Amino acid sequence: MKITNVSNVQVAQEDNVKEQFALDVLTGLCSTPKNISAKYFYDDKGSELFQKITSHKDYYPTRTEFEILDSIKDELPKVVGEKEIDLVELGAGDGHKTELVIQGFLNAGVIVNFYPIDISEKAMHLLKKNITAHKNLKIHGIVAEYFQGLRYARTLSTNKQIVLVLGSNIGNFNPAQSQGFLRQLRKTINKSDYALIGFDLKKNIDTLLSAYNDSAGITRDFNLNLLNRMNQELDANFDVSSFEHFGTYNPILGAMESYLISKKDQTVFIGELERTFEFNEMEAIHLEYSFKFLKKDINFLCEHSAFEVVEHFSDKNDYFVDTLWKAI
């Protein structure tokens, strides 16, 4: 498996990445309410914890999507109809679900060039362990932001692309951001390329709450790790034990929301910013939205992003949809 770190080579040295992290933290902690971008969850430790979340019994999206992909893996090569394809995955994950898609194409005799894209190089190495080697499979990991990596992948090949946005990653954007993301995706790929996108559907709220507040406390550790990251990378002095995780469903927005709640009045100094921040008892830091969808919402997004729906693939409980779109 070849890995190219596009972030370091083409865009930024480590100091610039750190500078952007610090700037985003400054902006977020000076806002009302305080917030920190969810993209900073995924340092190496955060990526490792997220993989543990996805395998926990309370977290249904991963196993549900696995079942969907297993049921359609032999159908996808017939729909695409190519002898060689590029699979480009945005957000590498651990490879278990992607392995199903890859094997479906390999079993059909298709040559597969797999380009996983992730901001964490450690995620690439986790993925490598779960992808079975094959003479017709080439893997080239790209460490980069999504569209930066997608543009780089296009310079490596002119094959038809299938862009994978698996999991419920699209749900981390609000409705306007989702449209912007999907339109940008369409601009970055060619006409007649495909996208296979995972959408978590609206469902029983208790099921949602259990998934985002797992009984093992892994989601709690995942969220609190963001404070550890700021301590390590930005010279902050957060007392992690004085914050707690809180996940809830907002029925107005149709989204799960994640917060860190300050257990007491406290002061935090961030050395990289040379600034002190005050936190009141029970004050919240907003971390993440995870929007849920109806199928009509998915159709709307497709229609307004210059794609057409090829087919929606769902599980028996209608918990999740993997939808195949074609660029028009």
Notes on the protein architecture:
By secondary structure, the chain is of the alpha/beta class. α4 packs parallel to α6 (96-107). The protein has twelve helices and 14 strands. It is globular. The strands form three sheets. An eight-stranded mixed sheet has the order 1-5-4-3-6-7-14-13, sandwiched between helices. The protein has a four-stranded mixed sheet with strand order 2-12-9-8. Strands 10-11 form a two-stranded antiparallel sheet. The protein has helices at residues 6-11, 14-29, 44-54, 60-72, 76-80, 96-107, 121-128, 146-156, 175-188, 205-212, 218-233, 295-303; strands spanning 2-5, 34-35, 84-90, 111-118, 137-143, 160-165, 194-200, 243-250, 255-262, 266-270, 275-279, 284-291, 307-314, 320-327.
What is the secondary structure topology, with strand pairs?
Blueprint: E1 2-5, H1 6-11, H2 14-29, E2 34-35, H3 44-54, H4 60-72, H5 76-80, E3 84-90, H6 96-107, E4 111-118, H7 121-128, E5 137-143, H8 146-156, E6 160-165, H9 175-188, E7 194-200, H10 205-212, H11 218-233, E8 243-250, E9 255-262, E10 266-270, E11 275-279, E12 284-291, H12 295-303, E13 307-314, E14 320-327
